[in-house]
Amino acid sequence: MSAQETNGTLQLPKMQSETPDYNDAYDAIVVGAGLAGTAAALTMAREGLDVLMLERGPAPGTKNVFGGVLYTPTIRELVDVDSAPTERYIAEKRFSMLTSDGDETAVSMRPGAWRDEPHNDSYTVLRRRFDEWFAKQAVDAGVTLITETTVTGLVRDGRKIVGVETDRPDGEIRAPVVVLAEGANSLVSENEGLKDRQEREAVAVSVKEVFKLDRETIDDRFRLDGDAGAAYNYFGEGAVGEAVGGGFVYTNKRSVSVGVAYRIEDAANGQTPEATLDAFESHPAVAPLIRGGRRIEYSAHVIPEGGAKAMPDLVHDGAVVVGDAAGLVLNSGVHLEGTNMAVESGYHAGKAIASALADGRSDEAALAAYPRDLEDSFVVENLRHYDWFQQTIADDRKFLFEDLPRALADAETEYFKMDRTAKDEHTDAARDRLLDAAGGWFGAAKRAWRFRRMLS
Amino acid sequence: MNDGWNIVVCVKQVPDADDVTIDPDTGTLNRSDAPAVLNRPDHNAVESALALREAVGGTVTAITMGPPPAKAVLQTAVGAGADGGVLLTDRAFGGSDTWPTSLALARAAEELDADVVICGEESTDSSTGQVPPGIAAHNGWSQLTYVESLEPRPDEDVLVGKRDVEGGYERVAAKLPVVVAMEFGANRPRPAGLHRKIFAETEFEPVEWTASDLGIEDRVGLANSPTKVGGMDTASPVERERERVDTVDDLYEHIMEVL
What we know:
- The complex is a heterodimer.
- Chain A is of the alpha+beta class.
- Helices cover 34% and strands 24% of the residues of chain A.
- Chain A has three domains: 28-85 and 126-196 and 310-376, 3-Layer(bba) Sandwich (FAD/NAD(P)-binding domain); 201-304, D-Amino Acid Oxidase, Chain A, domain 2; 387-454, no CATH class.
- In chain A, strands 3, 4, 5, 6, 12, 13, 14, 15 and 16 form a nine-stranded mixed β-sheet that branches.
- The longest helix of chain A is centred in the C-terminal third of the chain and has 20 residues, at 339-358.
- The radius of gyration of chain A is 25 Å and the shape is elongated.
- The model of chain A is unreliable at 1-7 (pLDDT under 50).
- By secondary structure, chain B is an alpha/beta fold.
- Chain B has a single domain, classed as HUPs (Rossmann fold).
- Chain B has helices spanning 40-56, 71-80, 98-111, 131-139, 194-202, 248-258; strands at residues 5-10, 13-15, 21-22, 29-30, 36-38, 58-65, 84-88, 116-120, 142-153, 158-165, 168-175, 178-182, 207-209.
- The radius of gyration of chain B is 21 Å and the shape is globular.
- The A-B interface holds A 1-3, 6-7, 10-17, 19-22, 52, 58-59, 144, 146, 149, 166, 168-173 and B 35, 59, 61, 78, 83-86, 110-113, 177, 190-199, 201-207, 209, 213-215.
């Protein structure tokens, strides 16, 4: 029974019983392989750093949820987006107000320019496929990705963060810098005192379902061809009932994503996500879009919507916070963005870490280039610009979500009414309906002033 | 054997059962979308191999047969604590059924001078359960199948297996070398340590053996596989009557009607 009997040259396996110690074998540990974490890891690897990226899911993307539209200008700088698994480019944006009586008033736009490459850098993607692909680009650049490993805490030496604790045996590992890209539900950052527990008003809950439909059916229903796709956003009582928020319908290649997002406070006050989504999907303006589709996915997530005011400190001695964990999500009603900001923050964090480590430093001051660069980027600029928005719509919810959509529907009904009255009279009646709802000329002017910044 | 036992654990890469669907038209498994993972019962095999090593000393060598990506399941085993790994990889193995597969594993176990070979009870993608007894048969070694737990007696070169049988259990003592098929769910597989997992996925390299390395190049592959799949069919579920009966007498009536 020895190797020599049949083949003297057969190489026996090397017994590798000793486990190496990987403490300080890596320059940085990234917590979470979502878009922010992967962008940071990829940027650092390109700068020549050894990076360990820890992900709790069995593969990147399996734990990630977003509505569905990814804006790719920064990703394009990092990787070859044209080989990415995108679903459809956004050829149409549509903003629609729904009443709970079944009325819809919509504005739709299809600029011809969006049909041309690079399609305004706007694509629907499925996170399970996209994030896995994006993380693979980081691995190809030299990043070590370890999945099914949850970071449970930080390791400190005095004030300085010097590593992470995971849920695995022998689970502590040290590195000069830790990048916290753990997402919206940032338990480690909160437990470790790097950020405050978020205010209920500043957090939204989102639920989403994906319905499988034939490609041709989607093309026909949404008037699309080729890789063109549609992003429909909905407001008003018909979208999210009594809550402050909105609904959305996005087209993928062979499926349609449908969801609602609204303040978690409204959910805590009794408006359940499943009932809200159910009502939205049953609305006469929405139901025909998904009719006959087979439900293949159900997911829920929290969204930090505190804006610039709610951003925690982004750098600490030995650590930075990026992406959703840093509250980098923009909701201005017209613009719904987060993943692009996550990538941008990961990119700037990665650059700052590389230059700090080049000087042999990882303290807060040495990493300060990250918040500085982010401050100068579109990310913080946009967050500050729209900081007023959330509170203003919350204050004016009844007008925006109930009275205005209904008044619009009534005015439309009046304006286009077919009877034997002169058109002039219909126009007057329609205008009266709108003015009534807006609080007369004076009220309308006040509101126009208050919301002028939405388009500025 | 005062330096412990040579323990070999056989592992297999399979499509994740959670993600495998059956094509209703052809009756074949739609594996393409499913990620490749370690066969679930093999986790129990790895765990009992590691526990056995703790009890008697020695080494655990993980072994798998498959294309180069099958290295991933060796990494899983080494991450959990196996000392080394062997990848049996060769185009000649392609299309092998359980007969040549167990021959290849048997020859490899022989090369490794195995005292104990541990396998999962069956694979989730074919469910034959034939490979562990096949290894024993090819080598003329003892076998213990559907084992719940192991009790080594190193002084006597004996391994005792507790087997689940109808109405209770039996304990079977087997002379080394022995092939063990561990029952699915028999133990609680340990999670990989963080540093060991990093090692397994970044630095660990298995040795690769071909069919000719094992001297069996003419005895493996599709041509040497005695079983052929003649066809596939799906069984459609029977629609239930969903009738409620209120009394035992009514129920009796119904049963008598059917009988």
